[in-house]
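Re-running the complex after MR caught last week's input typo. The corrected sequence lines follow. Everything else is unchanged.
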Amino acid sequence: MNPDTPLQLLGGLTAREFMRDYWQKKPLLVRQAFPDFESPIDADELAGLALEEEVESRLILEHGERPWEMRRGPFEEDAFSQLPARDWTLLVQAVDQFVPEVGELLEHFRFLPSWRIDDVMISFAAPGGSVGPHFDNYDVFLLQGQGKRNWKIGQVCDSDSPLLEHSDLRILAEFEQSDEWTLEPGDMLYLPPRLAHYGIAEDDCMTYSVGFRAPSAAEVLTHFTDFLSQFLPDEERYTDADAKPVSDPHQIQHDALDRLKSLLTEHMADERLLLTWFGQFMTEPRYPELVSGEALSEEELIDSLEQGALLIRNPSARLAWSEVDDNLLLFASGQSRLLPGDLRELLKLICAADALHAENLGEWLGNETGLTLLCELVKQGSLGFANE
Ligand SMILES: [Mn+2]
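Corrected-run output:
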């Protein structure tokens, strides 16, 4: 994707301009980002998904058993027939994993790293439906799929921003409106993290939210140090072979702090381990139970592909790659593999292709390491045969 091509999705901005001026900085409203957009899924299909055990869904009722009542799915079939005429919202997470046409929308966001994208949540709201004024700690693109929604934006928030008490949701107690727009199908609003927003359905209304992953500093530190500590033997300890006799035995001297700092720096600076951890962390599937496969021999794989089989990415799997020295790392759904540098084009193909087949794999079918890798990915469940 050429970063200097103006994009309709970004209202005629290039990806480079959008990243420089808006991304993580300020909101952007784009009228007809998706011209003549027709939602690939309707309200009944969305409600149908919310009945499924493996799908994560919530219902928000502004005037439920308590204000802003939240109910968690999966729901019973009659749950929707008993709802009031207005002021409720159904939210369904990760619809991109269950409806391929929704997953395809993400192709338009290829100017951003795929490992930063979390999911496409779809909400359906009756007139007046809202989840209240709130803020999120991640970026979001809000695409209007059907009907109209009024969006108000407000102040930049943080964890000290006052919230309503006794609420199932994190609803802001104060909302300082700075702007508002009514979005129609195909219109899209980009919001940076922590900006207060308040969307209210004007009629039966469906909104797509493309959400992002951004680990908190606390998560980075706890998860990375957990990961690192697996590689550290118990005998590796605080050492002070350079210590001098102390004048006050009760005082912790700053030379002890220096030794600690160098212990930390030594391990934190291990770039290969940092990269390995990060790639694994960012490709962890949202629903690991949906990523499972079966063992397959290399002969079986070649036979199937030569008979025209298609290998496709499991929509619940996440893939990314990176380079380390002369080698490559492939990250697949929370696991990593160190691979020789000559597999670069294969890794790029595995990560990017809609489907792998005899034609686009070509000579890779004769590459022993490449074949082993493909079998491992099938076994792990990140790749699978189409129509199975
Ligand atoms: Mn939000």
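None of the earlier attempt is carried over here. The pocket of manganese (II) ion is lined by residues 134, 136, 140, 197 (CB under 6 Å). The chain has a mean pLDDT of 96.
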